Amino acid sequence: MQLAEHFLKLNKELLGESPIRTVHITISGLANILECSERNVKYIIKEMDAQGWVEWKPKAGRGHASSLSFIRKAEEVFFKIARQKLDAGDFAWSFSQLKYLDMDAREQYFQLLPGYFGFHEIEKNNRSLDVARVLYPSPGITLSPRGPLYIEQTQIVKQIFDTLVRFNEETGKIEPHIAHHYEIEPSGQALHFYIRKGVFFHNGMELTGSDIKYSFEEMISQGGRGILPRMFKNIKRIDVQQPYHVSIYLKEPNFLFIHLLGYPEASIVPEKIHQALGDDFNRHPIGSGPFKVAEHTKKRLVLDAHAIYFKERPLLDQLQFYFVPEIIHFNAQLPAHLSTINRIESHDFERGATFLTFNQNKSGICQNNDFRKALYYGLDKQGLTSKLQSSARPADSFLSEREHTPKYNPELASIYLQNSGYSRETIHLFTKQGNTHVKSAEILKEQWSKLGVDVAIHSVSLEEIGTGDFYNVCDIFLSKELISGSDADLELIELQSRFKWFLNDDLITGLKKVQKQIFRESSPQKRYRHYLRIEKSLKRDFLVIFLFRNKQMLQTSLNSLEISLYGYGTPFDKLWNKPASVSKI
Q: Where is each Transcriptional regulator SgrR N-terminal HTH domain found (predicted)?
């Protein structure tokens, strides 16, 4: 309601925290505040007066100040409309108006929110529906399964689409999904899939081998970043032997290729619909997953249960995701007990680490092995984690869970620094945006300054990473990468591919050689030993320095609805709402 927005803005600008509720102002003064014409201001004030929100006493004569009295308080008007909006599922309006309210009113508003999110039972068309409402702290989401995907996207994409196979996190094995059976030839260059009958897309069309062939060939033609586009280039051809039998032939052996086909980015799309919708498919896609898109606007995404899903039907009837990016700003200002987004520590530590990589494609002192050693031995990991005031513990490896053995030795660091010929040139330390990353960089700068090394910190967004300035200026990159708990084999390949950002041609050639050996190896244990070889090589030359790992975190939404940040995220299709009361016999 625009009239209420005008009222709240005037209240904020003219009254502030003053107890005096009457001001003297001209029509032109009001027009400046509301950024509209004087004619419109007269209409707006007349409407507010009719609502009983203000009393306007005009003074005769152009340019003379008139009397404007605020009859209603800002919070009265706000909460009356906010409750109506919330009941209608509109959360965006309320958040956009909070800036005009004082902290007490904001806290009162956040006390209302838990009742609107979480699990609910609603009536629709004489049916009782079990619904989960989830607060989504971003301006929206792209529903295309083509990656790379952030974990929040992955959680939703998995509900809309299906893959040929799936990775079982508990057993660590690949299991059939759309394909009820698959075979890999001993050569590692041919895979045969036998497709289930009766797998239907959300529009009622049956999924067949032609949709699978189209999905994979479309991904190859699309290209892009990430592990799937790179490894899909290894496909020689795809044959649809019959509607329910598909064979994939590879140019070179790759026993990890089957793992790729369980990634959400390898989801199957309906050929005819995808071609017909074009770019619109990304906003209103059709898949074969447990939920289908019922509504997708700037305000929310609504997913309905796919009633004829080929596996177990979702236990909930509907998922509602509300896009409220403003929540991040207001959440930081609230007391802990009113926080809408809480992160709770798990007992387990992350699989992965925060680490440093050196840019081997930029000339300068960081090319010197003694200088890199000086930074390594001049780095106090215990001191770093203590100052972070978190559950972080020092790490020596991305892969190993073994306890860190302290290597901090400032005397040895000074010797290596002197041997390197360092002459106080500035070292440019880049890091991803975020409080923990920036604070870690500041602590490193402080530690290395005691050694006599000058450091400049650059905080960059995800979009800036990999650009020309990033490569040309950055000497050291502080980053954090995790194995989410899903398919570790592929995630390790993807991680080590990211090391290539800063490796020179000789190092990249060596990395690719080992990765080829990994692809040809059918034994997971032997593949793991190859991963360790790569890590050991990077550590030996001090091209990578591991810093620390944190405990895993769970994000809780409102009304005790927990959203996992690990693995493939929250299994929304398995969630259910236990009735508040059960009749007794």
A: 6-99
